[in-house]
Amino acid sequence: MFNVLLALALPPASQACPSIAPAFVFRPLAAKLHSFRLTFSQSLRLPMPRRYVNQLAERDSVDQVFLVADKQLRANRQGNFYLQLRLADKTGSITGMLWNANEKLYGSLENQHYLRVQGSTQVHNGILQMIVTRIEKVDHSEVDEADFQAVSTVETDKLAARLAEVLRGVKNLHLRNLAECFLIDEAFMAKFTSAPAGVKNHHAYKGGLLHHVVSLMEVCLAVAPKYPELDSDLLILGAFLHDAGKIDELTYERELGYSDEGQLIGHIVTGVSMVEEKAREAAKLSGEEFPRELLLRLKHMIVSHHGEYEFGSPKLPMTLEAIALHHLDNLDAKIYSVGQILKEDMSSESNWTSYNQALGRKFFKGSR
Ligand SMILES: [Fe+2]
Ligand SMILES: [Fe+2]
Question: Separation of 210 CA from ligand 1 center, angstroms?
Answer without folding.
Answer: 13
